[in-house]
Write a structure and sequence with these properties.
It contains 14 helices and 8 strands. An 8-stranded mixed β-sheet has the order 3-2-1-4-5-6-7-8, with helices on both faces. Helix 2 links the parallel strand 2 and strand 3. The chain is elongated and about 75 Å long. The termini are far apart.
Length: 327
């Protein structure tokens, strides 16, 4: 099939590469001419503007927008809506807030354009491993573009089979699914990212407990100098906490066991916050996911006023003295 891609960052460019490897034709645009030229050398058709990009497509057109959530995506889709024709499809594969998807789908529907939201997971590994996709929007449009999604998906791998269930979409076992109407794809991906925060925090806290078992504050007989790299490696093999995140943890520890190439400041993409907002709207307790999000906030303020005030209160009521830096 033919597909246009707008945004050739770490994921957008690799999506184009995987599709070209699968025999699809890619028309590519990015604000960076170098990024456009780089993908063109690998076989894509370059475009220097959105207007040129649309002109190189054969109706019914499909345009995949892979840009950061927010104004840049809003402005791009608004401009596209004035260039595309009835029957064309706009796909947003970024981390957009699902309520924005619902609004955009309604706006584009008034122009006889179709809007599809694709929650896309796979990161920088997607080119080789494939992308897990959660797809919201009109079913007929999703089905028409199925060859695109099938090429991007991981396909049948070594994932343990679950019992067959009547009515299950066969695409699910290939790594992608039609989740429902516009907004549902990004909603499922949003919760996926919220869970990701919790899993990452659990691994981080667990490995710190292992690491601190060698600390001098413990009686010598109770200290264990554990090789965290080997612990991660053995857990990958048959343990119930094995996962791709653990695989990546093992890689990071093998490369730098002390992890001294990182500052410990952890950003959040926004989807963790949106997940907590959804939990509040639905009155769903989300204790672990909330704590994981707040831990990311705390990481960015190691010497925050709140932490200083905690220390001050401990000193006032119990005479507790702050440990010296580095202890």
């Amino acid at each position: 099939m033919q597909l246009a891609i707008i945004g050739l960052g770490r994921m957008g460019a690799n999506i184009g590469r995987r599709l070209m490897r699968g025999g699809h034709e890619i028309v590519a645009y990015d604000v960076s001419p170098d990024a456009v030229a780089a993908l063109a050398r690998e076989g894509s058709k370059p475009a220097s503007s959105l207007k040129e990009l649309v002109g190189k497509l054969t109706p019914p057109r499909a345009v995949w927008v892979m840009l950061p959530a927010g104004k840049i995506t809003e402005d791009t889709i608004a401009e596209l809506s004035g260039l595309l024709s009835a029957g064309d499809t706009v796909i947003d594969g970024g981390n957009t807030f699902y309520k924005d998807d619902i609004r955009r789908a309604a706006t584009l529907r008034e122009k006889s354009l179709t809007y599809i939201d694709v929650g896309t997971s796979g990161g920088v590994w997607g080119l080789e491993r494939g992308y897990c996709m959660m797809i919201g929007g009109d079913k007929a449009a999703v089905d028409r573009l199925d060859p695109i999604f099938a090429t991007l998906a991981p396909g049948i791998g070594d994932i343990p089979k679950t019992p067959d269930r009547e009515g299950r979409d066969s695409r699910v076992e290939l790594g992608y699914m039609h989740t429902g109407p516009a907004g549902s794809g990004h909603f499922v991906k949003m919760v996926h990212n919220g869970i990701e925060y919790g899993l990452m925090q659990a691994y981080a806290e667990g490995f710190e407990i292992l690491k601190e078992k060698g600390g001098t504050e413990l009686p010598e007989a109770q200290r264990f100098e554990l090789d965290l790299t080997d612990v991660a490696e053995v857990w990958r093999r048959g343990s119930v906490v094995a996962s791709w995140l653990l695989d990546l943890t093992a890689q990071a520890l093998a490369e730098k066991p002390a992890l001294d190439n990182f500052t410990g400041v952890v950003a959040d993409s926004g989807e963790g916050r949106w997940t907590i907002e959804a939990a509040l709207e639905e009155a769903v307790p989300a204790n672990v996911l909330s704590a994981a999000l707040y831990a990311r906030f705390a990481s960015r303020k190691p010497g925050s006023f709140a932490l200083r005030l905690l220390s001050a209160m401990r000193a006032k009521f119990g005479g507790h003295v702050e440990p010296k830096a580095g202890t």
